[in-house]
Amino acid sequence: MNRLAQTALLFLLGATLLHAGLTDLYLRYVKAGLRPLVLLAGVVLIATAAATLWYERRHSTARQHHHHEPRISWLLALPVLALILVAPPALGSYSAAHTGTALTKPFGFPDLPAGEPLRLGVADYAGRAVYDDGRSLRDRELKLTGFVTLDRSGAPYLARMGLNCCAADAQPVKIALTGNIPPVLSPDTWLEITGRYTPRRTKDPVNDGPIPYLEVTSARPVPAPADPYDETWNN
């Protein structure tokens, strides 16, 4: 590939990173805390493209021969354009159903705020229910948001995918549902569930990891959040 093509690809990739970092698109790939690095990478790539173009123009007159690379090399720009034109969906029910729960024991359990209902993350509820025996959850009205996933038997779970760094290492935390469950649940449907703690537990059919239950009192579909991943479990 000649210098002009290199410059164009560097600029496109840098512009793509800036576009992703200045919108919520980057959340499909990396955790929210990495936004500054995504923006910095975009700036560095665009600066490198500008420097490469300046160097090429400055030294082009001194060259005796010019080698024409095959035009097919420009096809390398297609994956970069795809990142702009076709944003991949966030990992959802398929990944959750085929991956064991990643719930681990937290270092501690901070005090929960007063007031009803109490909004909790899926991982926060699961950690307190399993490793603190639900002490801070008892007699509280709870609200949780997540997407629906089903196991092979059709049993429903409320799940969120958590990230250590990026979507490539995403793992699910799951909560089994009981009580007033909607009669029809479609995988990847996002629900806001109101319910209460129950000591009932089960094991993940994938890795035998612990999965707590939530006693559902009501549920309603909601749009997917801007950040579909739950980072509370690895903070």
UniProtKB/TrEMBL annotation:
Domain DUF1980 residues, every copy: 130-229
Coiled coil residues, start to end: none
Keywords: Membrane, Transmembrane, Transmembrane helix
TM stretches of this protein: 36-55, 75-97
Name assigned to this protein: Membrane protein
Tree of life domain: Bacteria
InterPro entries: DUF1980 (IPR015402), DUF1980_C (IPR048447), UPF0703_membrane_permease (IPR052955)
Pfam (any one): DUF1980_C
